Amino acid sequence: MKFKKVFLLVFVLPMVIKAQTSSFDYNGYVEDLFNTTKSSLNSDTYYDNLVHARLNTRWYPNNNITGALELRMRAYYGSTVENTPNFLEQIKSQHEFTQLDAVLWNKKESVGYFQVDRLWLDWNKGNTEFTLGRQRIAWGTSWVWNPTDIFNPYNVLDFDYQERPGVDALRVQYYTGPVSKFELSIRPGKTKKGWIAAGLWSTNKWNYDFNLLAGIKENRWIAGGSWAGNILGGGFRGEITVSQKTQLLKEYQYSYSLFNESPLSAFDHPVVSFVLSGDYTFPNSFYIHTEALYNNNGETKYVGLYQQEATKLGMLTAARWSIYQEFAYDITPLIRGSVFGLFNPNDKSYVIVPSVTYSVYTNLDLLLIGLIFEGKPLTEFGDYGQSVFVRLKYSF
């Protein structure tokens, strides 16, 4: 009964509203994602299925106000649900004050989860724009790693969540020109460590977009900048952040001491993250994209051991160096093939991600994608095994 009510809310009600008013619009998709995974830890094979539905709505009561409500429903079934303790807690979105979600069911082999992924109201007048609510604040310019995306970090391996996470925040933008602005964004928290407040200045010079930011994140100051432009017809981007040294997370000391190592949070200097990114598309549609990330507090060995702490510290990876390489090509107008890889040059672990996308017909796409992880135990990518995914997606 609960699932039927959610289905009516997500798919039927918007169609009725749109038929009655021209100030309302919507789009979304429904997809089925099947995957098989072979674990590198115990050689077991897992079979899973995910039904994922999303609805994005917009409301335009007048020329100055826009409202948004975006809903997401996921139904998981299979071996991973059955063999993962507290699976439901791992897929839940985390927000400081209100979750705006519902557990549709939670059984041994199946979980249904519904959430409000976006809920914001935007008001603009002249050169000023205010946005309040659950929204996406994207400050990064690079396409894989975004250290300047301090509100909504992105995981390139999470290929089934193109919209990326949102944050409950107030965003104020003041436009000083067609391509320049000042911005202030605030995400409140229940404690000082939960607050993020930062300002951004954006401008364009020499056909390049430049951004400078400064603020407070989790009770630590942070500053940085980014750029995006092109060289000889190819994209050229970069980002850098410098932040206050972290407070020691003592809960990790014991597990690291077994390997005669110290926590990432024991790093006693300002933390620097730097990204360089470039891409180029040839006339025959062949595409190449290269990106590199450097963390001065990153580890060069046992990186897999540090991943949980790195996530808690807001790091994009626990590694000192990371390299991304992608190649893509339009095999036919309806078929696109690509392959990208993430490589850790210190511990020599890597993940290779080949994929093929086929446009079956208008609004219906078929995706075949693999995630091939390789490396020794406790390296960055050595403990994940191999997975193959097949996704059929209908967009409306």
- Taking pLDDT < 50 over at least 5 consecutive residues as the criterion, the unreliable ranges are none
Largest sheet: 18 strands, antiparallel, barrel
Q: Which class best fits the helix and strand makeup? A: mainly beta
Mean pLDDT: 91
Number of domains: 3
| Discrete helix count | 5
Distance between the termini: 25 Å
Query: Rg from C-alpha positions?
Result: 22 Å
Features:
5 helices; 3 domains; single chain; mainly beta; 19 strands; globular; 396 residues; 18-stranded antiparallel barrel
How is this structure best summarized?
With 396 residues, the protein is mainly β. The chain contains 5 helices and 19 strands.
Structure, explained:
- The chain is mainly beta and 396 residues long.
- The chain folds into 3 domains: 118 residues, no CATH class; 96 residues, no CATH class; 152 residues, no CATH class.
- 11% of the residues lie in helices and 54% in strands.
- It has an 18-stranded antiparallel beta barrel.
- A hairpin with a 2-residue loop joins β5 and β6.
- The longest helix is centred in the N-terminal third of the chain and has 19 residues.
- The protein is globular and about 60 Å long.
